[in-house]
């Protein structure tokens, strides 16, 4: 199962790279049903300026359209970063059977890091969770993105100071 998981995670990483090319946080998602990719997506939050345009939610929406049902039973979601609370809720409500993610999210991870919404028995659905698939590659995309963002902001600040915009009258 691991080689199959790595194959589909590579596809999610490709989606994450698309996000990075658009100056979005590089998170990608792929949904697979019966060994077939039924949807893929990447973050679009900066472009759309909508809090809900996370890769997982966009992939879930496309998958539902593809199969003509809100129930994604027997499907697997591959995502490069551990799902947040909002995405975890959508995963449960769409009945995704299995979630495979790469990097853990220490700030918002709800598939085992901060909490585990996906396997909470109080809900009427639980998802199987597999973590750490191509974790280094997924994590490096995020580290590179945020390092570049910090450098860009630092350069802009330095440029503003050099243009005399930081003078006190």
Automatic annotation (TrEMBL):
Zn(2+) binds at residues 54, 84, 87. SUPFAM superfamilies: Cytidine deaminase-like. It catalyses: adenosine(34) in tRNA + H2O + H(+) = inosine(34) in tRNA + NH4(+). The active site is at residue 56. Residues 3-128 form the CMP/dCMP-type deaminase domain. Its EC number is 3.5.4.33. Binds 1 zinc ion per subunit. InterPro entries: APOBEC/CMP_deaminase_Zn-bd, CMP_dCMP_dom, Cytidine_deaminase-like, MafB19-deam, tRNA_aden_deaminase. Transmembrane segments: none annotated. Homodimer. Catalyzes the deamination of adenosine to inosine at the wobble position 34 of tRNA(Arg2). This is tRNA-specific adenosine deaminase. It comes from Heyndrickxia ginsengihumi. The lineage of its organism: Bacteria, Bacillati, Bacillota, Bacilli, Bacillales.
């Amino acid at each position: 199962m691991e080689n199959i998981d790595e194959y589909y995670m590579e596809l999610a990483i490709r989606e994450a790279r698309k996000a990075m090319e658009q100056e979005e946080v590089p998170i990608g998602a792929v949904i697979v049903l019966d060994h077939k990719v039924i949807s893929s997506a990447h973050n679009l939050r900066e472009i759309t300026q909508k809090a809900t345009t996370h890769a997982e939610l966009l992939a879930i929406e496309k998958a539902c359209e593809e199969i003509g049902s809100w129930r994604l039973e027997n499907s697997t979601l591959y995502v490069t970063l551990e799902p947040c609370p909002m995405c975890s809720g959508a995963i449960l409500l769409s009945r995704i059977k299995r979630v495979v993610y790469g990097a853990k999210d220490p700030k918002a991870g709800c598939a085992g890091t901060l909490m585990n919404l996906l396997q909470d028995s109080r809900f009427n659905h639980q998802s199987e969770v597999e973590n750490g698939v191509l974790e280094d590659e997924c994590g490096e995309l995020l580290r590179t993105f945020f390092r570049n963002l910090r450098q860009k902001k630092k350069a802009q600040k330095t440029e503003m100071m050099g243009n005399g915009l930081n003078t006190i009258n």
